[in-house]
Amino acid sequence: MSLPPPNKPVVTRFAPSPTGYLHIGGGRTALFNWLFARGRGGTFLLRIEDTDRERSTPEATAAILRGLTWLGLDWDGEVVSQFARKDRHADVAREMLARGAAYKCFCTQDEIEAFRVAAEAEKRSTLFISPWRDAGPATHPGAPYVIRMKAPRTGQTVITDAVQGTVTFRNDGLDDMICLRSDGTPTYMLAVVVDDHDMGVTHVIRGDDHLNNAARQTMIYQAMGWAVPVWAHIPLIHGPDGKKLSKRHGALGVEEYQALGYPAAGMCNYLTRLGWSHGDDEFFNTDQAKAWFDLPAIGRAPARLDFKKLEHICGMHIAAASDAALLHELHGYLAAAQRPALTETQSDGLLRAMYCLKDRAKTFPELIEKAHFVLASRPIQPDEASAKMLDPASRGILQELTPQLQTALWTKESLEAILNVTAAAHGFGFGKLAAPLRAALAGRTVTPSVYDMMLVIGQNETISRLKDAAA
RNA sequence: GGUCCGUUCGUCUAUCGGUUAGGACACCAGGUUUUCAACCUGGGAAGAGGGGUUCAACUCCCCUACGGACUGCCA
Question: Above 0.85 for ipTM, yes or no?
Answer without folding.
Answer: yes
